[in-house]
UniProtKB/TrEMBL annotation:
Signal peptide: none annotated. Pfam families: 1-cysPrx_C (PF10417), AhpC-TSA (PF00578). It catalyses: a hydroperoxide + NADH + H(+) = an alcohol + NAD(+) + H2O. This is Alkyl hydroperoxide reductase C. Its EC number is 1.11.1.26. The gene is ahpC. Belongs to the peroxiredoxin family. AhpC/Prx1 subfamily. InterPro entries: AhpC (IPR017559), AhpC/TSA (IPR000866), Peroxiredoxin (IPR050217), Peroxiredoxin_AhpC-typ (IPR024706), Peroxiredoxin_C (IPR019479), Thioredoxin-like_sf (IPR036249), Thioredoxin_domain (IPR013766). Thiol-specific peroxidase that catalyzes the reduction of hydrogen peroxide and organic hydroperoxides to water and alcohols, respectively. Plays a role in cell protection against oxidative stress by detoxifying peroxides.
Amino acid sequence: MTQSIINSTIKPFKATAFHNGSFVEVTEQDLLGKWSVVFFYPADFTFVCPTELGDMADHYEKLQAMGVEVYSVSTDTHFTHKAWHSSSDTIGKITYPMIGDPTGTITRNFGVMIEEDGLALRGTFVINPEGQVKVAEIHDLGIGRSASELVRKIQAAQYVASHDGEVCPAKWQPGEETLAPSIDLVGKI
């Protein structure tokens, strides 16, 4: 049995990303002080991946308004990310950093490396401003993710972080009632 990544602190890394037409360095320090999403996918120039990255791009403005930065990561290089960004209309709309992880360091740090293939599973991690993982979701390669559901999970994580003693029930949406766990609720929900 492995230890859960939930509430663990992100491990150090240093990588190069393609971001808004430039190559930029990204480290774990860039994820501190704000909410972040680290969004792993298997490979550039594939099939399910562009649908997910495009969906994330469509939600990026809303995530930015929530104070969240998005980092997509694959084991491709930053050069490959640039080539994909330049050749695909779907990927061309991405304005969040696309991190290249050809050594697999970041992918292994988050426990999503498929060693025999050198590719990442579809892993999504929400990290709080202190650098702790608050949401971890890992999918098999054939199962695409939904950015709108991710937005809801981040809203819940942010709410819980700023409202001590409250928790968000299933399907909670901002503005809806939350719960305050106590002995009085046991068996009454």
